[in-house]
From TrEMBL:
Gene3D superfamilies: P-loop containing nucleotide triphosphate hydrolases. GO terms for molecular function: ATP binding; ATP hydrolysis activity. It holds the Pfam family AAA_21. It comes from Candidatus Fischerbacteria bacterium RBG_13_37_8. This is ATPase.
Amino acid sequence: MSLKKLKVTNFKSFNKAEMQFGSFNVVIGANAAGKSNFIQIFQFIKEVISSGLDNAISMQGGINYLRNMNIGASKDFSVTAVFDQEMSWTGKVNNKLEKIKMHELIYEFALNFKQKSIDYAISKDRLHLRCEFFKVTKTRIGTYNDEKLGDGEIIISSRQGKINVIMHKPAHSHLDADHIFASFLREEQLPPHTLLAETSFFSAPLIRETFNGVSIYNINPRLPKAAIPITGKAMLEEDAGNLAIILKKILKNSETRRKFFNLLAELLPFVDNLDIEERPDKSLFFKVKEKYFSSQFLPAFLLSDGTINATALIITLYFEKQPITIIEEPERNVHPYLMSRLVNMMKDASSAKQIIITTHNPEVIKYATLEDVILIARDKNGFSSITRPHNRKEIRAFIKNEIGLEELFVQNLLEG
């Protein structure tokens, strides 16, 4: 699963923006350009699914801080997310097997604001699945063959809380919406201020991996320096506060332990060993043995922020399974000498998962490729705009003449 495109209107510093993504994406921009607001788009969608629309809006500070202050109620707030998503469903229809393979998922919703009021209405709420239809037949040797019947689409929408499903399918397919969505369609009327993303349908495996598969990390290296209770999430917290719990799990398995130490040697070659200690009060903290002091471990509270940051980054890139990983300023506390190794690690990890990072560090930009870079800048009206510098001829000409991408960024020449 990967995110292909994201569109947003009337959100914080954005008027209207559209961005396309690759496997590795480096989001850059000056201070107050809108990078944090860009991350908040993803955070808002996650909060809608986990906590509901009203709560998600409240977590953004309310309607007035969700939408752009200059635009206000004059334009709908909207989000459109387009994913590449390989999913399939097989079922029996009239004693015959049929299969649907879904290859693209589009979810869009919009909120209409009432003038001089903090109230709102859902003006659009739609899930669009593009797919292929197959007839499944069993061979004499017991295997199954898929015979393609044609392309189609499934559109699930909610209008004033009323759910509607439209299926466009090939002529020879006998499937209908009830075969796939029978339990979901029993939810005949959604409560006010409720999106499709909040319904039981989005808790089904078909959709859950797409929208819950985004992790947003803003690593705080001070938190893992303290001991933490042994009870905690089995996934790395977005601030890395439960780093000791995750390390304990990794170090228990010989294969993941070997992989972890091989990666750690790339960023922290002075580390000789790392271990987790469980205290009598049922708390955990991790400790490191350096090659310079091989006789004893150093407790976490004596470690540098860079050591903890690098350790957490390795876990986010290689040991957490979410298909889309967003990291805010991963270069924090990392020495410039190690920056090329860090960027190469992120590029390597992006072959298995989609990586999106934000940065304003020239050293990170130096080792990224022009095709990876997404630029966020403020226009003359104060709106944040999103562009790909690679699409500009003059930027490609600068690079061809051996002017580094990082130098163009420092000299503010990428904004044009």
